[in-house]
Amino acid sequence: MDRFVEMEAFNAVVDSGSFVKAADHLGSSKAAISRYISDLEARLGVRLLHRTTRKLSLTDEGQVFFLRSKELLLELNNAELEITSRNVTASGLIRINAPVTFGIKHLSPLWAQFLTNYPEVKLDITLADLVVDLVEEGYDIAIRIATLPSSTLISKRLGSTRLILCASPQYLKKYGTPQHPAELAQHSTISYSYFSTKDEWYFDGPEGKVSVKTNPRIHSNNGDTCRAAALEGLGIILQPSFLINEDIQAGALIELMPEYRSIELGIYAVYASRKHLAPKIRALIDFLAENIR
Band of the pLDDT at 214, cuts 50, 70, 90? Predict the structure, then answer.
């Protein structure tokens, strides 16, 4: 017999002063309540109640057990109420993983508003471009920028970004402006180490799909480093629009061969399971979808 059921029956009898009233309160029968108390006393090896036809009273041992078991039942009830309330209200800690540059440029300005909207939520944010294992490393949610998210995870598309080929005016003045992707093999390029296609860059142009094997002068696992090198005239980069759009608008970088479009990447919120999704996670996903869109 479940110990908490026995304790609940015992407490109901003591509080009501009657087996019948305890049975009514718990939606059970008098015989069942009597059996719970007898099983409890047999397991503990002590008598907890003095029983007469007219009155019930606690033994010394019963008094001690009543006070302690009442505390336990109250703690159990509080624990259940806390979890139930969390299922209604967004609250608690959210551990988030996101790419470095996107996290700094586009997510960090959003956190103040999110925490204002959900004052009972706390955030633990880790920025890293390397893809992490959400379950193994204990993250609730990750932001991924990819052609397709992992099939082992649940994902929601938040937006998209396009890879843009560009270089600084000083580089193009010194080395010339390539007119076809094949010419990139003879140019100084700056490559992002975590590209799934590595140093092979893909484009879709007037004659269809085109690829070129580049020979990078610089490799980096950080998009900001690639951008900084390009701004200094060290080579051509292929980087997402969210990183270099402002540079292109300012003329610090020049888009190359716009008729040859490169890969479009989706921006996804990914998480381990759709089942029993906590309100705090659902609130974050909805918030990001609204603000990144």
Answer: very high
Same domain, yes or no: 136 and 172: no
Is 121 found in the same domain as 75? no
Amino acid, single-letter form, for residue 7: M
Please give the pLDDT value at position 103.
94
Query: pLDDT category, 283, cuts 50, 70, 90?
Result: very high
C-beta of residue 231 within 8 angstroms of C-beta of residue 253: yes
Q: Are residues 235 and 116 in the same domain?
A: no
Judged by DSSP in three states, 8 sits in helix
Residue matched to tokens 């586009």: 106
pLDDT score for 267: 93
- Shared-domain flag, residues 167 and 152: no
Q: Return the sign of the alpha-carbon dihedral for residues 137, 143, 147, 149.
A: positive
- Encode pLDDT of 178-202 as tens digits: 999 999 999 999 999 888 788 999 9
User: Are the beta carbons of 174 and 130 closer than 8 angstroms?
Assistant: no
Indicate if 125 and 197 belong to the same structural domain: no
Residue with tokens 């990139």: 184
| Structural domain range at position 126 | 95-158+267-292
pTM above 0.85, yes or no: no
Q: Which residue has the higher pLDDT, 129 or 226?
A: 226
CATH code assigned at 143: 3.40.190.10
Q: Treating both helix axes as pointing N-terminal to C-terminal, what angle do 3-16 and 19-26 enclose, rounded to 10 degrees?
A: 120
Which residue type does 133 have?
D
Q: Are residues 105 and 32 in the same domain?
A: no
Q: What is the SS3 assignment for 165?
A: strand
- 47 SS3 class: coil
Which helix (H) or strand (E) segment holds residue 247: the answer is helix 241-250
